[in-house]
Fold this sequence. Notes:
Blueprint: E1 3-6, H1 8-14, H2 17-33, E2 36-37, E3 44-45, E4 56-64, E5 69-77, E6 89-97, E7 103-108, H3 109-128, E8 135-139, H4 143-153, E9 160-164, H5 168-179, E10 185-187, H6 191-195, E11 200-203, E12 221-225, H7 239-244, E13 247-250, H8 253-259, H9 261-268, E14 277-279, H10 280-286, E15 294-298, H11 303-320, E16 324-326
Parallel strand pairs: 1-7, 8-9, 8-11, 9-10, 11-12, 12-15, 13-14, 13-15
Antiparallel strand pairs: 1-16, 2-4, 3-4, 4-5, 5-6, 6-7
InterPro entries: NAD(P)-bd_dom_sf, ODC_Mu_crystall, ODC_N
Pfam family, one: OCD_Mu_crystall
GO molecular function: hormone binding
Amino acid sequence: MTTLTLTSADVEALADADGMRAAMAAAHRALHSRSAVQPTPHPLPASADRAADAPTVVPMAAISDELGIFAIKVLADAPRNRSLGLPAQRSTVALFDAATAECVALIDGRALTRLRTAAVTALATDLLAPPSSDVVALIGAGPLAAEHGRALMRVRPFTEMRIWSRSGPRAEACAEQLRSGGIPAIATESRGDALDGAGVVCTLTPAQEPFLARRMLGEDVLVNAIGSPPRPGFSEVCADVFAQAHAVVVDDIAVALAESGNVRGACEAGALDPARLQPLGNVVAASDGGRGGLTVFNSVGLGVQDLYAARLLCERARAVGAGTMVAIRS
């Protein structure tokens, strides 16, 4: 049997925001109905270094009885790579036939992860954002921020996309990239300028210390906390945001409690009772997030999201003859 291999360039050509968002909705409905299951990942230290930013390897797995497939993503998270001009994360997704255990596909995880992450945020925003929201603040200006700008515009006709980064040139470059695609994006001089009056706020940074406090936000606002890698030592959102939120939605409760620095920090500070956490699958199944007031959506990424994203890409690739078929077993 041959195995389909897809590069990140292949993934970019095959994926679209609407299709990926629909796949993520299906993934979370499957989690809700238990037709798909996933273990909570257990990060493996990649060296003897135990510092908060030491490199780790995170195996992320999921299986779908309904689809008859399982997937494993191996994620290498190395925050110090940024200082070397290298990607902080590298990953590969392997998709298998559950009945035969044959490897159906090998997919580079860079574009897949970025696209499915933005799609999940767009899905949550569609369900949770206040109806009157017309301004988005993107805190961060990397590729994930630009992807979020594109994905969010597919679910709501936002009138302004504000981008702030500690690097002004990067913020302007991100805004220009979005403007070239017809999105009304601007770079702001300060974080406060970006947040002022925003109905949707997306944190998309690798911050180790929380910076987004309740006093910076309006009354009716959705905070999408996305940027922190899957490790407790990184956090973007202050505990008082969780304390005063009328709803806290996470991609998965067990994974959030194990891997999210935002959620764990708020719980340890006594600002968040874990019993208040709602899984996104419940919201998707109900098709109503109960909008209004301050809402937080916190995401660290799931194996089941990778599985459904990989399935979508494989279907698209087979339909158009994309990718490369390789015989990895004789």
